[in-house]
Design a protein that fits this description.
The complex is a heterodimer of chains A (about 130) and B (about 280). By secondary structure, chain A is mainly α. In chain A, about 55% of the residues lie in helices and about 0% in strands. Helices cover about 35% and strands about 20% of the residues of chain B. Chain B has a single domain, classed as 3-Layer(aba) Sandwich (Protocatechuate 4,5-dioxygenase, Chain B), CATH 3.40.830. The longest helix of chain B has 16 residues. Classes of the chains: A mainly alpha (about 130), B alpha/beta (about 280).
Amino acid sequence: MSLPKEYDDLPGTTVFDAEQARQGYHLNMFCMSLMKPENRAAFKADERGYLDKWPMTEAQKQTVLKRDWNGMLALGGNIYFTSKLAATDGLSFQQIAAIMTGSTQAEYAEMMIKGGRSPDGNRSKSEWKNRG
Amino acid sequence: MARIIAGVATSHIPAVGAALDNGKTKEPYWRPVFEGFDRSKEWIAEAKPDVCIVVYNDHASAFSLEVVPTFAIGCAAEFPIADEGWGPRPVPPVKGYPELAWHIVQSTVLDEFDITIVNKMDVDHGLTVPLSLMFGQPKEWPCPIIPICVNVVVYPVPTGHRCYMLGKAIRKAVESFDKDLRVVIFGTGGMSHQLQGPRAGLINKEFDHRFLDNLTRDPEALVRIPHLEYLRETGSEGIEMVMWLIMRGALDDDVREAYRFYHVPASNTALGHIILENKT
C-alpha cells in the first residue's frame, strides 16, 4: 500500500519521493562521499574498485560508470547528490542539465537566455507522446 | 519586546554566489542580476535589523540522507561555511544568536511544531547567497543570523500551509522574547526552476508573477497550492517557494510591498525577490 503518485504523469521529471530515496540511499551516499578530496582521488584512480565498496546495485554502478545522469535519477539518485559526481568530473550544474535534456550546453544556455522552457506542452506525459 | 519588522524573499542560486566571489558582477550576463539588489542593500542598511532569521534549505551539505529533518533550527553561536565541492565560499562565518534561537525552539515546540535542534551545522549557498545579495561583501555580517532549514529535497516536503503556520508560530516566539530587537525574516529559494531530467530548464513567468502579487495581497491563496501544482507549473525545484510562505506567515496580514525584482535567467533559474514591510 502506498500513497497515490499523481506526479508520475509529469514528463521528463523524477520526483525524489520515499521510494526513490529508499532505493537510492547508497547511490546518493556514494555521491556524498565525493565531498572529500581524498575520496575523489580514490574514485578517480579506480572507479570500479571504489564503487564496489558501496552496497549499490550493479545497475546503479553502471549508470555511474557510464555517467548516465538520467539513469542515476531513475534508480534513486537525487540531483543534489549526483551533482557532486558532476563536480568531481569538473562539470557545472548547467552542463549536466544540458546533457540530461539531450542538448548541447550552448543550445541549453540559449534556451535559458530566451526565457527557459515553457510549461506549455510540458505538463503531462500525454503531451510528450510524440517525442522520440 | 522583539518584533519582526519586515520580510525578504530571494532566490539562492549558487551560480550567483560564484559570480560574486569570482568578480563577475559587471559582466553583461550578471550585471542586471546584481543591479537588481542595489536598492535592497540600501533598504536593509536603513532597516538595520538586530538579527535576521533566514529560512533556507540545505543541498546535501550539512545533511546527507542519514538524517533529514523537516524543520531544523540552528542554535549554535557560529555556523561554518560549507565546502560544496569547490572549497567554502569566501564569506565571513555566520554568527548565530543562541539565546533567541533556543527561545524559538521552546515556543514553537509548545505550539506543536516539532522543530529539530541543531548545534553543529555548516551552512551552504542556500543561506549565504541571500546574505551576499542583501549585504554585499562585508568583512563581517552586520548582525547575527538564525538559520531555519527546511527539507524541500525528499518528498513529501512540508505543505505550504504548514510552512505558513510555522511562520506564525515563529512570530509569536519572537514577540515573546524579552529584549528589544528588530528582526527581519528571509524566505529563500525559488522561483520556477527545474535542475534535473529531460524537462530541466522549465521557467513559468506567469506563475512567478502571480505568486509575487499574491504574496503581498492574498497569501491565503498561496498556502493551498498543492505540491503537484508546484511540480507541474514551476519545475521540480520550484517547490522551494513554500519556504517563502514561512516568511510571509511571520508578517502582518496587511503588508506594504517595498521592493520587487524578477529576472530570467540566472543559470537554470528564475530569480525572484521581494521586500515586504509590516505597517504596524
